[in-house]
Amino acid sequence: MDLNVVSRIRQEAFYNSQVMQTFTHLTEEIGPRLTNSPNMQKANDYAKSKFNEWGLSNVKDVPFEDFGRGWDFRSAHVEMIAPRAFPLHALPKAWTPGTNGPIEGEAMAVTLKSAEDFKKYQGKLKGKILFLSELRAYKPGTEPDQRRYDDAGLAALQSFAVPKTMTSDRAKRIKDFRDREKFTRELNKFLVDEGVLATVSISGWDNGIIRVGGAGSRRAGESVGVPDLAMIAEHYNQVMRMLDHKDVVRIRADIEARFTSDSNDPGYNTLAELPGTSKADEIVMLGAHMDSWHTGTGANDNAAGTAVMMEAMRILKSIGVKPKRTIRVALWGGEEQGLIGSADYVSKTFASYPLSTKPEDADLPKSLRPRTGAMQRKPAYDKFSVYFNMDNGSGKFRGIYAQENLAAMPIFQEWLKPFNDLGATTVVSRNTGSTDHISFDRVGLPGFQFVQDGLDYFTNVHHSHLDTVDHASEEDLKHNAAMVAAFVYAAAMRDERMPRKAVIEE
Amino acid sequence: MDLNVVSRIRQEAFYNSQVMQTFTHLTEEIGPRLTNSPNMQKANDYAKSKFNEWGLSNVKDVPFEDFGRGWDFRSAHVEMIAPRAFPLHALPKAWTPGTNGPIEGEAMAVTLKSAEDFKKYQGKLKGKILFLSELRAYKPGTEPDQRRYDDAGLAALQSFAVPKTMTSDRAKRIKDFRDREKFTRELNKFLVDEGVLATVSISGWDNGIIRVGGAGSRRAGESVGVPDLAMIAEHYNQVMRMLDHKDVVRIRADIEARFTSDSNDPGYNTLAELPGTSKADEIVMLGAHMDSWHTGTGANDNAAGTAVMMEAMRILKSIGVKPKRTIRVALWGGEEQGLIGSADYVSKTFASYPLSTKPEDADLPKSLRPRTGAMQRKPAYDKFSVYFNMDNGSGKFRGIYAQENLAAMPIFQEWLKPFNDLGATTVVSRNTGSTDHISFDRVGLPGFQFVQDGLDYFTNVHHSHLDTVDHASEEDLKHNAAMVAAFVYAAAMRDERMPRKAVIEE
């Protein structure tokens, strides 16, 4: 670890930071960045322009598989108009249709969980606005919204539990997937055929927070169903109790949403490099997904990670280091729909499994398509060293998850030392999942995420309309950018590539 | 304490409760109950009909002073339309005008805190939507939303601090009041004269909660200014940062709000009695304000208190007790605008100060008008025993504040015993203020409130759009109704009236 370089990294990160400008531009100038939306394209363009401005190399968008259609929304007005009038707070699910102007209809509570339910309601739903979730009792918040690790919390991360034996029943997962897809298609058709005006479900969280993902369909040629909203629990439950009380509840809604293409377009990852010197053909990567859900500004999920990774590249370029290995940054798309951008990139660049090409398997996503052989490594596989990702909100890095790669632990411990004074101290053996480093990890390539202070990510922010700039901390983002820059530089300079653990093939 | 009666009270309260029906009717069938709004009149009528149905006596509305105009609102659509489009969550302040259809204008951040500020902006505000608050940094929630007392918390209430010497400078308070009123009138006129489309301020709380009271004017003949909104912090700050970034931010708003009368109408308190027997001319009172703010359903502030007091009366009537003293329930109006309903009632019924009738004092509210003599007691003053109030959210009663009336403490301790098993154990000497028992207390009449578990009243609910049924607990309301019924019955039966402390005259 070259402490001279780390000093210069810290000083550039702390006293000449541009991380907040990048973060604010992505979130508030561009806005939320649903994959394949016009905003996501603006973000790809913005990232490329900054990378070029900073003097990075090989700046480009790399397409990934035929992701589907773009979608965005402009406004969502929902209100009760009878038996009394008041505004209802609700927002549309991504990839669902708008209302084409104001609609008005009677609210009706129904259960539509299987094809058998359809018969029960046939002919009875015309012009109705369906409330599909059950009433959910308020769950009092008995922990603080905001969390930062204390020493005990960090220490607790050190324990590792032997994993339970998992029986990966691919056949069952395929059947479940097909059943679910079939039901969704039938439901969308049923709702349209019956003349349902809109459907509403309860937000996943209480306290007026609208937590919402996607519905309808992003695939060209498929039915997108009817307008589909998530409503705050306090309003949803109110409607449900009024219906239970036999009130005739009338609702007006005006949702301006649109599909921005009619074809299954590819998505795009944005990449850039700081070229290596003596080992230029070897690769150290850093990245984060740049796509987001649509109702906040995708600030903590994941403009924060994007801005930190961009800033780390800017810092390294700006202080003029000449790394031995090439440092490559990737800003992924399609993460929220299943790590699609990073998985596609890894499979085309480093390693993949040959997959069934039978027509009867064409409906399956790549992650479920039957494998027809062992993992196939590309030449770049052996030239790859390590990938660092950020996607657990905007909280401060307090250490790193070694992802069961024990040989990596002493290396990380060493790299963390110049950040101990900032509260980053902890290397833990355990795994963390659910985001793009897993695309590397599952083909046996070292991919890591940092231990982050939680802040209010999982109480207020994650996939909610409150995922905005205010819930992030400037100091945390600066700290993270410095640490990532130091880690990737150290990885690019060390004699050996990062040690690897065994590939666990299914 | 007649434990046979307390058993019957508890059983009626716990196994034959109607408190949730009353609570839900007030909140979700009627809705929020701004004083002098049509909903408040519905609530007065509903309360009278229930009191009559239950067989209570002297059921009536009693008018209080010329409160002002009624107001309500039906809908509030606010959205950013440029440089990008998304819904903004905002709600109107009470007694402000609607927009008369959709309006569109450019957002502009301005400071309008004194008449001098007007000059600076003269001629520059036409067609603008003004953002009047400063950007406010997010304040992370480091305590749980939901609070219940533990033993240590209850014990801590036992300490009493000798009050600091307060210099009540009536002249200064009068001047401050007049300055404020003058500025508000001038501001309203300025905004109208300049052709401002609307004003927006930041909600008092973070996390998407809209906390909002009144503005404009409820007094007939006064300017109500322009449409005036409170916006969630996450959206407000976003607009402020975009303006700071020199973006041209255009906003569309459509607020359907209306004044429901053009005259300074009286408000109304609703009263009912369970007549006494051997001491029928002596009075024990219980009450709560029934009015609310307008954006939630006024559930925890204060349909909860209203439903508990109504239920206590129902319980006592239903179990057929014959109290010695008359038990009178009062459901107040105008509490949110300064305990207006209860103060007017107490001054007309029990005691009041002679007030200046000079024309130059006519602009002052009664609470500020100069007194021209000592307190004057009406005959009912000496026949009054005690008043119990509930208005600190819907949390469970854990004891009672003795309001510095030490002689009341052993009496309350005794009355609490049959509720110790329910967690109500604590009599504390300290005061609690800010609601209708103070109207009694300040003329030397015993008026009390209970120690209540806080729940999330001061984190999510108080004066916010989340003041809804979901944030209340059925068990707590049943418990409270039983305890109030037992306390008022005990007060109505004991040999002596409740001891009194000295009147502190100003």
Give short descriptive properties of this protein.
homodimer, 506 residues, alpha/beta, Aminopeptidase, Glucose Oxidase, domain 1, eight-stranded mixed β-sheet, 13 helices, 18 strands, 22% strand, CPQ (chains A, B), zinc (chains A, B), glycoprotein (chains A, B), signal (chains A, B)
Give a verbal description of the structure.
The structure is a homodimer of 506-residue chains. By secondary structure, chain A is of the alpha/beta class. Chain A folds into 2 domains: 3-70 and 263-493, Aminopeptidase (3-Layer(aba) Sandwich); 75-157 and 170-255, Glucose Oxidase, domain 1 (3-Layer(bba) Sandwich). Helices cover 31% and strands 22% of the residues of chain A. Chain A has an 8-stranded mixed sheet. An 8-stranded mixed sheet of chain A has the order 3-2-9-5-6-7-8-4, covered by helices on one side. A two-stranded antiparallel ribbon of chain A has the order 13-14. In chain A, helix 2 crosses helix 8 (299-318) and helix 8 crosses helix 13. The longest helix of chain A has 24 residues, at 170-193. The radius of gyration of chain A is 24 Å and the shape is globular. Chain A starts with a helix and ends in a 13-residue tail after the last helix. Chains A and B meet through helix 2, strand 2, strand 3 and helix 7 of A and helix 2, strand 2, strand 3 and helix 7 of B. Chains A, B: It holds the Pfam family Peptidase_M28. Chains A, B: Residues 269-488 form the Peptidase M28 domain. Chains A, B: Keywords: Carboxypeptidase, Endoplasmic reticulum, Glycoprotein, Golgi apparatus, Hydrolase, Lysosome, Metal-binding, Metalloprotease, Protease, Secreted, Signal, Zinc, Zymogen. Chains A, B: Homodimer. The monomeric form is inactive while the homodimer is active. Chains A, B: It is found in: Endoplasmic reticulum; Golgi apparatus; Lysosome; Secreted.
